[in-house]
Write a structure and sequence with these properties.
Largest sheet: 9 strands, antiparallel
Distance between the termini: 29 Å
Oligomer: single chain
Order of helices and strands: HHHEHEEEEHHEHEHHEEHH
Strand content: 15-25%
Radius of gyration: 23 Å
Helix content: 40-55%
């Protein structure tokens, strides 16, 4: 698989004419958005002044209309960017990979991962599917939400997960279910209270204590099968998962269920959406797209899934 530096070279050398055109489109779009924002703000300010009441309702309509207008205005630019930049980048890694900007990993697979509570609403985009070194892999952006009701009976929505969701073959059929989560309890409350909270997590299976202190600082493991969990999480794999977590720089969730490894990397934004207010020629912007793609597709090599250390039974 191409390295990050090779992909960065491809981004600038092969896509530069496209990037220059898109950069001009971006500047023009930014000016239009600013003009519309000022115009709409002035109109709503006049309405609020004239009515001298209903401020909450006016603010709600203002925010909702602003979001709809912004989404409508960037739609064509976003599509062109994904087809002209993200898709070629993916094919530069492997030409056999399939890409769809509008779809995402299925809700069934998200729920089957057992990483999060079942969502009441799920959306996503930038779906990639294919094989890397003979290993099936798929990933996409996911935004999963839970419905709640406030004291007035109105629905509110809370985020269960937002970020990159990856599914890959693991060349082993697991009889149990093993889940590896970020260790927030011990890092927040200390070893004694944190361990007690982990052990009494009613939403999870049995706590598995690992004999790697560094891994224990970063992750907590739950499983329906203690022996299988320790068999899967060898010292070698624990080190690879730690390296992957440090490379991603964001919270990482992992599970081993059926014949798959599921990985979720928590971000607070849509990863492959082009920014209207930052230059596409900016090196940091380019590296963010390149590194995220390389991280997702590189799971196969990073975790040595292609070495078939286990055989499917």
């Amino acid at each position: 698989m191409k390295s990050v530096s090779e992909l960065t070279d491809f981004y600038y050398k092969n896509l530069f004419p496209t990037l220059q055109k898109l950069e001009n489109d971006r500047k023009s779009l930014r000016h239009r958005i600013i003009f519309v924002a000022i115009t709409v703000s002035a109109i709503f300010a006049a309405i609020a002044y004239a009515l001298n009441n209903y401020y909450d309702f006016i603010i709600f309509i203002y925010i909702a209309l602003g979001a709809l207008l912004y989404k409508f205005m960037i739609k064509d630019y976003t599509h062109e960017f994904k087809m002209s930049v993200i898709k070629p980048l993916i094919h530069a890694i492997d030409k056999t990979l399939l890409y769809s900007s509008a779809t995402h990993v299925s809700e069934y697979l998200f729920e089957h991962s057992k990483l999060f509570a079942d969502p009441d609403r799920m959306s996503g985009n930038d779906y990639v599917k294919g094989q890397i070194d003979g290993i099936n892999i798929q990933f996409s952006d996911i935004h999963a939400q839970k419905r709640n009701q406030n004291s007035k009976g109105k629905d509110t929505w809370s985020t269960i997960f937002q970020g990159l969701f990856i599914v890959a073959d693991f060349n082993k059929h697991f009889s149990g279910e093993t889940v590896v989560l970020p260790d927030t309890a011990q890092s927040t409350f200390g070893d004694i209270i944190g361990h007690w909270l982990q052990s009494n997590n009613a939403a999870r299976d049995e706590l598995v204590k690992m004999d790697d202190p560094e891994f224990e600082k970063e992750f907590v493991v739950y499983s329906t099968d203690q022996i299988e969990a320790r068999y899967i999480l060898s010292h070698s794999l624990m080190k690879k998962l730690l390296d992957f977590k440090h490379k991603s720089k964001y919270p990482v969730y992992i599970s081993f269920i059926g014949t798959h490894i599921y990985m979720a990397i928590s971000y607070d934004k849509d990863l492959f959406e082009p920014s209207v207010f930052h230059s596409l020629l900016d090196y940091k912007v380019a590296m963010e797209y390149v590194k995220t793609l390389h991280l997702a597709i590189g799971v196969v090599e990073e975790l040595k899934l292609n070495q078939k250390l286990w055989s499917k039974v």
